[in-house]
Design goal:
By secondary structure, this protein is an all-alpha fold. It has 22 helices and no strands. One of its GO terms (cellular component) is plasma membrane.
Length: 472
């Protein structure tokens, strides 16, 4: 009876917090994807090699590793900081630090020093580290464990909406109407000041919204803490590979499409296709939120997924500067994505393994095809990236209980993959391998994700069973 009353009292409080946190997900998705615009911008501004330009991702995502490592060390020896101060204060500190990172772009652009840009990106990454640790875990706690993947997919979908419009709006703000022929050192000053202002407004909104508390009473524990759970240990490498693969592909799309053997497109045109790569992730996450929602019947899921896919596709079409004919290939991937969700039967691990296998095939096609086939293959990867982060994350922390925040910090630490994998691919791109063959690096990333999905489908029966049964 007490549990029923608690549930009835808590449910009305979850809608507003979810909407507020979703807005935050949108903003940090937008700003994170701006790195894909900064890479070609800074590469041309400072005449950098591929490896040097990938220091953008190295500093940004390297901050995730160092920040999460510090968090884990503190939580292991002194107790979980978020559990002590609460999720709301943790989220607010992340938003404020992120805004400081954006403000630091002003002196970097004013003095036109590459090292200052990298420093600003590092501070920005530290702020997003705190957000990743707090916000993702917070969303997973706003309801039952078996529906966590669905909730996180929904918030991640709005994160992907931010990454979809960033190449278009961000590309215009940085490159201006003149495209990549209009590069100046001062181009990033005003855009990032605007981003800082928006983040601070979001912080004010969060401060004034009542967020449910999930603090727990801590007791002394020995051993490895969260690391004693095998699904978490494997999930850490899974997040490393996923973020590394996704960021590496996104970072090289513009350079890849500029190759004469592919399309020879300019930056002004290819940024629209980059938006489609991230837009695919947005569509897939909305579909994932529906597919993994156990409160909807199978027949209604199919209808909702078709209608949602059509609506979001039209939204992307209205954003990008491409004709319907140039975008029509995307409908094939939508159909394939829908079929993959049906085959996955709303089970997070099985769906994860299936999506990873499709991305391996698409990457091989990217490496060994030319022209439009290669372009379509690399862009199709985005829609199958969609549910990977949320599924790996929720599978990794499944059953951790009081170790959830500590486990979350370890998973966020693994976002280091976004720093190292693009750098490794950059080394290959600068070598005789070239840009196209360098995509062998993310192939290995998705092969591991395939293994992780198969492992969890076999070992975490309680998660798979609960989600599958509820889905029908």
């Amino acid at each position: 009876m007490n549990s029923t009353n608690t549930t009835n009292q808590a449910r009305p409080n979850y809608t507003v917090p979810l909407i507020t946190i979703t807005l935050l997900f949108f903003m940090w998705g937008f700003i994170t994807c701006m790195n894909d615009i900064l890479i070609p911008y800074l590469k041309k501004l400072f005449d950098l090699t591929f490896v040097e330009s990938m220091l953008v991702q190295f500093c940004f995502f390297g901050a995730y590793f160092l920040g999460s490592l510090a968090y884990f060390a503190i939580s292991y020896y002194k107790g979980d900081p978020i559990n002590k101060v609460g999720y709301k204060k943790g989220i607010l500190s992340g938003v404020v630090l992120s805004s400081v990172g954006c403000i630091l772009f002003y002196p970097a652009a004013t003095f036109s020093v590459y090292g200052l840009f990298l420093g600003a990106l590092f501070v920005l990454g530290l702020g997003f580290t705190i957000l990743q640790i707090t916000a993702n875990a917070y969303v997973s706690l706003l309801g039952t464990e078996d529906s966590a993947s669905g909730r996180l997919n929904m918030t991640q979908a709005f994160n992907a909406f931010g990454t979809t419009i960033a190449p278009i709006l961000g590309g215009y703000l940085v490159f201006g109407p003149g495209g990549d022929h209009n590069i100046t050192a001062e181009a990033t000053r005003i855009p990032y000041l605007v981003f800082a202002g928006i983040l601070l407004l979001v912080a004010v909104l969060i401060y004034n919204v009542k967020l449910p508390s999930f603090q727990t009473e801590e007791t002394e524990q020995g051993g490895l803490g969260a690391l004693k759970f095998p699904q978490l240990r494997l999930g850490i490498l899974g997040i490393f590979c996923y973020v590394g693969g996704e960021v590496a592909v996104g970072s090289f799309i513009i350079s890849f499409l500029e190759l004469p053997s592919i399309t020879g497109l300019t930056e002004a045109v290819s940024k629209n296709y980059l938006a489609m790569y991230w837009g695919g992730a947005m569509i897939g996450r909305f579909l994932g939120a529906i597919s993994l929602n156990h409160s909807i019947s199978a027949s209604k899921k199919a209808i909702y997924m078709v209608l949602t896919a059509a609506a979001v596709f039209l939204l992307i079409y209205s954003i990008v500067d491409l004709t319907f004919g140039q975008m029509s290939f995307f409908l094939v991937f939508l159909a394939l994505n829908f079929a993959a969700f049906l085959i996955g039967k709303s089970a997070p691990a099985r769906t994860l393994a299936l999506f990873a296998s499709i991305n391996v095939i698409l990457l091989l096609s990217t490496m060994f095809s030319t022209g439009e086939m290669a372009m379509y293959s690399v862009l199709g990867i985005g829609i199958f990236n969609s549910i990977m982060f949320s599924n790996i994350y929720t599978l990794g922390i499944a059953g951790l209980g009081k170790y959830t925040s500590q486990g979350s910090s370890l998973l966020v630490m693994a976002i280091l993959g976004g720093a190292l994998v693009p750098l490794i691919q950059g080394v290959l791109a600068d070598s005789d391998f070239g840009v196209q063959k360098s995509f062998i690096v993310p192939v290995f990333c998705y092969l591991y994700i395939l293994f992780f999905g198969l492992y969890c489908a076999k070992k975490l029966k309680f998660v798979e069973h609960a989600t599958t049964v509820s889905g029908h």
